[in-house]
Amino acid sequence: MSCGEPHETDCAEVLDHLYEYLDREMPDGDRAKFEQHFDECSPCLEKYGLEQAVKKLVKRCCGHDDVPTGLRSKVMGRIELIRSGQAVPEQPVVDPAQVPRESAPLRARGDAGGDAGHLA
Question: Which residues form the Putative zinc-finger domain (predicted)?
């Protein structure tokens, strides 16, 4: 995405590192460049606002769930593989057996054993 306007910091760079900005995982100098960019670029500011809202919503809705042991290191390992350009294995990050039962997807109504699709 680009707004088409010239900026000191390119829109693509800002969007590629948006979560580092949101998570305060970047040096102060880079944060200042991003803040200047947001002052100049309304499309990037809008994307920042949307991602910030999603992050808050996920934290509010899912912030109290227990995280399976080792998940963070597995996710960070995958991120490093992607950043380095290496192939990412086609395997789940989390063993389905470790997911709490209440977090599992709900079955479709038709699978519940009732007459959900039958009209009398």
Answer: 11-44
